[in-house]
Amino acid sequence: MPEKWQRPLAGNESAETAPSATEIEISIFGPGLGEALAVHLGHGDWMLVDSCLDGDLEPASLAYLESIGVSVEEQVKLVVASHWHDDHVGGLGKVVETCAAADFAFSGALHSEEFLTLVKALADRSLVRRSGVSEFAEVVRVIDERRRPGKVALESRRLWSRGRTAPKAFVEALSPCDGAVRQSQRALAELLPKANTNKRAVVAPRPNHASVVLWVAVGEIRMLLGADLEEAGDAQRGWTAILDRCDLDGAPASVFKIPHHGSANGDQPRVWEETLVDDPWAVMTPFIRGRHRLPTEEDKQRVRDRTGNAYLTADSCRPRRKRGAMVEDGLGLFDAQPVLVDPPMGHVRLRREIDAPTWSRELFGSALHLAP
Amino acid sequence: MNPPTDIAPLPATEELHFDHHVPVSGVADRVRFLEGWLFDEEGREAEETREPRSSLKLHQDWRPMQKWALAQQLLDPSDAGPAEEAELGGKLSVVLPASQHVLMPVVWHRPADETTREAFTALQRWEGVVTECLEESFVARLTDLTEEGPLEEVELALEDVAPEDRSLVGPGAVFYWSIGYRDDESGRRSRESTLRFRRLPVWSEAELEAARERAREVAKAFGGE
């Protein structure tokens, strides 16, 4: 058995308090392969974006909210699935089922008969025990039983708002645009099983130009949550489409969830110049799969060069799960060493009173500051 | 194809009842079908599988020659009765004659309460899904089947995959990795690490149409506005 895993906040009483009604929060959770966000929109209203599992195999954002006394059944108003890659949907079915009062929003690229057919065809967990498709199948089951339609996230579409109680707040999707939706739906159609071909698990295609980027406004505070959107290099998709086509409301954003794990192909310099304050609070999560490591050292340096407030939820060190001597010897027969997909969970928490000049930050677990 | 000569007298045969129709493209495919559907990675019948099942139980030490013999039986309508393409109410039934052939494979119904000594004892088992193929290796995500735990990942060399399985290695392929020890007949024990790729059945048009129908049913609830 691995050493007992402890939630990052465990035993830290001062950290285990919910923000006040006028205190805004964004918490970003990220082990090595996974990402989840929890955003307090004021007045006890929360939004969750994506999901990943913690060391107890529970959705990290749910576990966190429960640990600080949030009634997730009532207070979570919106759950957003930015896209369906495995690293963003771990435990999403449980999140949607538990957050009974929340609307569920998902990328317009998934609003197709092809995707639902894929989900329904591959829903049976006998094919593989855990996958992004089976997780989405659970979401579809919950939404279907609840009989409250999901919200389709598309460019410039408002997903949630609070207009009567100050501070006013809203959440708006900045993507995907039509071109990205069409491209993604073509890619999804390619994944559909064909008769008389052997069954296989589905590995979601990359790159992803159809994930849901969010613009969050609470009073005068703005946050840009970049999901995994990459720069496509044309005006019809990716970050250029957002910058050219979306009318971003009000002040520039002071918080930036850096897209696509800080990768170079998720970077568009205009985002920093046109949508963010100087020296914004910028947070990214790592992506570690096989030989792929994001962010790279070059990626980290690029972000450091742009802000002194850059944070990473976990570094790329991946521990092994220790097993008995005979199994360890057996591993040597193949000269193979399984490593945990996820290093210990890291959590970056930013809080700010609605009228305060800036954010305060706390780091939990393996989260770290990328010092200039 | 000449029959092998080293097969000892074997127990009597029974019937094979398959729950679905399986296209037969050759001996190798048929043998793979048997391995992939009736056994788990340790050669035992896969009790947990929800896939279509057969009433057949095979000995875990099923030898290549015996597989060959069974394949021959299945593929030869004159020997085996109903042909391999016969589909009877969704069931393919192939009767193996009990006395016509000296190369009768080991096929019998094991009584439910009978326990057999397992030659291979697994200490650790994973289910793997291939996520990426490289030139001489592949990367896979692992779910621990021995003790629940966080997902793991490993890079394995293609040369550790049995030659007959290598064509199955591709993104999305499902396999089982077992580490344990094997006791041979003389009582010697040796460590063993095995990879076995699942030979998943083919999608039928009926399955896909059912999925499309279910998709249409939930489409409005999922994204209606």
Q: Could you explain the architecture of this structure?
A:
- The complex is a heterodimer of chains A (372) and B (225).
- By secondary structure, chain A is α/β, with parallel strands linked by helices.
- Chain A has one domain (20-194, 202-369): Metallo-beta-lactamase, Chain A.
- Chain A contains eleven helices and 19 strands.
- Chain A has an eight-stranded mixed beta sheet with strand order 6-5-4-3-2-1-17-18. In chain A, strands 7-8-9-10-11-12-15-19 form an eight-stranded mixed beta sheet.
- In chain A, a hairpin with a 5-residue loop joins strand 1 (23-30) and strand 2.
- The longest helix of chain A has 15 residues, at 132-146.
- The model of chain A has no long low-confidence stretch (mean pLDDT 88).
- Chain B contains four helices and nine strands.
- Chain B has helices at 27-38, 64-75, 77-80, 205-223, and strands at 15-18, 57-58, 92-95, 107-108, 120-133, 137-144, 152-157, 174-183, 189-197.
- Chain B is α+β, with helices and mostly antiparallel strands and 225 residues long.
- The N and C termini of chain B lie far apart (64 Å).
- Mean pLDDT of chain B is 58; it is low at 1-118.
- In chain B, the strands form three sheets. Chain B has a five-stranded antiparallel beta sheet with strand order 7-6-5-8-9, with no helix packed on it.
- Chain B is 21% helix and 26% strand.
- Classes of the chains: A alpha/beta (372), B alpha+beta (225).
Number of helices of chain B: 4
How is the main sheet of chain B built?
5 strands, antiparallel
CATH first level of chain A: Alpha Beta
Ends apart, CA distance between termini of chain B: 64 Å
According to CATH, the fold-level topology of chain A is: Metallo-beta-lactamase, Chain A
Question: Can you give the helix content of chain A as a percent range?
Answer: 25-40%
CATH architecture verdict of chain A? 4-Layer Sandwich
Share in β-strands of chain B: 25-35%
Structural class of chain B: alpha+beta
Low-confidence stretches of chain A: none
For the largest beta-sheet of chain A, the strand count, sense and barrel status come to: 8 strands, mixed
Task: List the helices and strands of chain B in order.
Answer: EHEHHEEEEEEEH
Q: What fraction, in percent, of the residue positions of chain B are helical?
A: 10-25%
Secondary-structure element series of chain A:
EEEHHEHHEHHEEEHEEHEHEEEHEHEEEE
